[in-house]
Amino acid sequence: MEKLPPRDVRYAMADEYVDVVRQLFASWDADAVVLDREKGIYADHTKVRPIHFKGEHFSVRGPLNTVPSPQLRAAFVQAGASPRGRRFAARNADSVIAIANGPSGIHPPSRRSTSLSSTSTNPCRTGWKPTENRVRWTNCSSGAAAKPCGSWSSTGLGDWSPRWS
């Protein structure tokens, strides 16, 4: 890629990539690993499947080339703050990194006009369980590298409480 595609194209690529990754992690059944040393069998091949993904940006045969971890897949973290980035985060992210200009800028998402609170970007309205929502705030006001300064974790729909680092 010689130049960075426009933001909407990058997010279309990201949506497709997340779809590929989810399918790869789902390509192993939970009981696929046999570990039968006597027979020389590591995994039951009937419980590990190719995904045959063919999209606009990616083509992946699969399956995942290693056994999934105990949590079944990697955590998805999103740091985009644009409206498209927030929609992507609401649909896909386990954790969202947001920027605040100091501790006074840290609010529950429902109180921020540029937050995940609108209908199309509120994680509670896109299938997340309220206890899974996580926003991690960073402080960039000093001009130095971003430093974690707190997070908000929802305990119920619209009920956000602070968790400080």
UniProtKB/TrEMBL annotation:
<keyword id="KW-0285">Flavoprotein</keyword>
<keyword id="KW-0560">Oxidoreductase</keyword>
<feature type="domain" description="Luciferase-like">
    <location>
        <begin position="7"/>
        <end position="103"/>
    </location>
</feature>
<dbReference type="InterPro" id="IPR011251">
    <property type="entry name" value="Luciferase-like_dom"/>
</dbReference>
<keyword id="KW-0503">Monooxygenase</keyword>
<keyword id="KW-0288">FMN</keyword>
<protein>
    <recommendedName>
        <fullName>Luciferase-like domain-containing protein</fullName>
    </recommendedName>
</protein>
<dbReference type="InterPro" id="IPR051260">
    <property type="entry name" value="Diverse_substr_monoxygenases"/>
</dbReference>
<dbReference type="GO" id="GO:0004497">
    <property type="term" value="F:monooxygenase activity"/>
</dbReference>
<feature type="compositionally biased region" description="Low complexity">
    <location>
        <begin position="111"/>
        <end position="121"/>
    </location>
</feature>
<dbReference type="Pfam" id="PF00296">
    <property type="entry name" value="Bac_luciferase"/>
</dbReference>
<dbReference type="GO" id="GO:0016705">
    <property type="term" value="F:oxidoreductase activity, acting on paired donors, with incorporation or reduction of molecular oxygen"/>
</dbReference>
<dbReference type="InterPro" id="IPR036661">
    <property type="entry name" value="Luciferase-like_sf"/>
</dbReference>
<feature type="region of interest" description="Disordered">
    <location>
        <begin position="100"/>
        <end position="165"/>
    </location>
</feature>
